[in-house]
User: Fold these one by one.
Assistant:
Number 1:
Amino acid sequence: MESEAILNLSNLLTDDFADAIQLIYNSKGRVIITGIGKSAIIANKIVATLNSTGTPAIFMHAADAIHGDLGLILKDDVVICISKSGNTPEIKVLVPLIKSAKNKIIAITGNKDSFLGQHANFILNAYVEKEACPNNLAPTTSTTAQLVIGDALAVCLLDLRGFSSNDFAKYHPGGALGKKLYLRVQDISSLNTKPKVKAQTSIKDVIVEISEKMLGVTAVVENEKIIGIITDGDLRRMLSKVDDFSKLLAKDIMGANPKRINLHAMAIDALEVMETNDISQLLVEDDDGKYAGVVHLHDLIKEGII
């Protein structure tokens, strides 16, 4: 039922939708979103989405607005009123006050002929035939429709502003989402030890290096450039094949031309390389191609990238 209602919203679109987007986009003020009851909860979510995608927005509860919070609205602000019926007492009191202050009103309502619909500058029709509630009482389908319209507004504004993933990262610095957008390989590898041996290093010293650095790997370098890699898996395979490794050197068991990544690359890109190649360690190099460290799958897990 709700999916059908969402699909039907496209049939209810008018030029008011595009005009409302242009109004918000060209506004020098903020977007004030108001509602009451379940519509107020939807308003809060739309505010959060707008703020996180580059459009400053503030929630104002319709009941509180007529008891002092109306002072939130500034001269250039655009007001979005959300109401299924468009005829709630609070909305009927609030709308004329907003109009008298010369602020533009965008209505998200399921009743375009309501008090709100008649007095709004733009109407975004959120009509639904029936609520998903068996008694057709609890706001379910109607609030879903309101939310979809709010998301559509946010996405259109995001596109108009050319809002990129880099911009998104500025507003989401915390949590796993933020880290996926701003955390770089260097931020992780710089915290790790930097295991390295030369091609002529004995296997005994290779084992010591891997054990001491505790990353399960060491780079094989020559003139600070990566020429190979030895993992603890390589050591186990060697031990299963030979009894005496006293004469073996790093070059004898190393994997040549290992996968590597630039230290300025995004951490999420390091994860993609690891997953694509089924590896758990990745060597890091700087802009000059010199060995710069190791990033381990466990580091990415610890940072919440996975």
Note: Residues 129 and 233 are 63 Å apart (CA to CA).
Number 2:
Amino acid sequence: MEAQTPESSHVAKKPKKRRLTLIIILLAYTVAALMLTTTSGDIMQIAENHVSSLVGDQGGIARANSVSQISGISIVNLDINVNGQTQNQDVYLTDDGNIMIIGNLFETDKSLGSNGTYEVSRADIPLGDRELTLGNPDAPVTFIEFSDIECPYCARFYHDGIVGVKKLVDEGKVYFVYKHFPLNFHPEAIPGANAIECAADQGKWIEMHDLIFENQDSLGASSYKAWANQLGLKTVEFNDCFETSKYQDKIDADYELGRQIGVSGTPASFVNGIMISGAQPFTNFEATIRAEIEAENA
């Protein structure tokens, strides 16, 4: 066996040095990446600060309680206090903390139907004897909206999404049901909901609803009473209904139903039970409505 010369032995050791250098570089990058990783505490602080800024103009503040994860998304549970009232709500953040979502998050249902297509998740939403509705209850599509009259996103949805829905109601293709989901950091959410219910007693719920969303910067008891008069309602009857919060139980029941089916923010709507989350333009969910119409008429 031929013996190695000192020179050949020196050459053989060079790859080991290169491997060692590479390992050191990789370790350095790993340490740097770990140092730059956003921690759970950071995520909670980001959520708390951002939500506090959103409700700050109303004297509100948010406090983060906990953080958990699902499919790479951080879920931060917050207590949001405005005017002495506290609401518990989840918000969702990407792991780097750069994007926050306030609304509804659902795990996808990947179970296959018998025809080899994915089953669409649908909420079962029972309707009571006294609902705020427009259109034919036998229409192929039932569109249910959970809303808050003081929510700016609900106002945006009113000016776009609901306009398209109302057109389909007029065509007999959609049955529209309006439900209350008052967020407790909106002081006029419950009084405004009561105003709509009291107007419904005299057959004018949608008119009061529209006046409220057309004048969202003028909400208050005096405005509701003035609008009742403008609509030709019996003002004594309306005022008595409003001042006694006659429909508080119904408003509470709507809110609780929304929570049970996964609503955590407004607006949240359902097309034959299929959720449409947030203030989406009508063009974003028109195809879903028309597909349901075609399926019902097939």
Note: The chain has ten helices and nine strands.
Number 3:
Amino acid sequence: MSSSDELETRIIQTIKDRGPLTGAEISAALNGDELLLWRACRLSENLQVFTIGRRYLRLDRNIDGFARLSPSILREFLTYSAIGLQGGVPALLQRVNEIDSHIKAVSREKLELARSMLSALLGQMECEFLMREQACFIIAGDIVYEMAHDVPRPERSTGKMIHGSDIDLVVVVDDEFPGGLMERLDSMIYQEKQKILMTPHLREEIDYIVKDLARVRTQLAFDTFKHMLACKILQEGVLLYGSENLFHEIKSMLHDQGITKKLTNMEHQARIFRKEAERHLLTEDPGRIREGSLSYFYPEEESEEFE
């Protein structure tokens, strides 16, 4: 029996014993190489892999053309997939529903935390009118796709373990917004960010930026990786609080400058790239795969470029 056949047999026995599992649960049970586990599940005629949720554009410096899909191949396997036996559809669908419900609940909880933080913030400001009419607070990232996860991971600056997906917040103020108030708003969000990061029962990471419309106009040049990322975040973002007029103005700017179409084309290319990457990982010898780049297999954080 080959090593791949032996691994498949071990996966099948584990699922027989425990029922349908996520990729992370299989990995923990077998303590195996994640690439080989993913291959074994995908190539097996005795297993079914059901993927939950959706894929969406993410930008990555390590990818030619910058466009890839999120979740990554590995994250999708570990967190957003249920693996069961062929013929065991009822049990597999039950597990799929459990995972789907959990992911959506995590997304709602992170969204509510962002709203609570914003409410606390506005309660300390004596200029709510300006916040409501001359600023817009935009939520972006995994949350807007209802794909946030809570898998523990280390926060970049402190190394402390946090609960999965970041909460991405973009605050854009109009051209008339007072500069001093903008700086104060930035400082207050930072203080709330630190409280949430350090509070034991929360341990969430908030990535945020406060910027004016002039900076947005500069980023619409779409001529650097950082500008592309800033536009992509604005394009996917949804309004959390503030001026609907300003929010729609930003969306119109993205459309009128051709950014929306460019991002759509990038996502299309990312889907082609993902299909080719998966084919390569499934058909090439694992030893030769490891000699090349595996950046398209592993997760990559966008937020280190967040601005």
Note: The chain is about 55% helix and 15% strand.
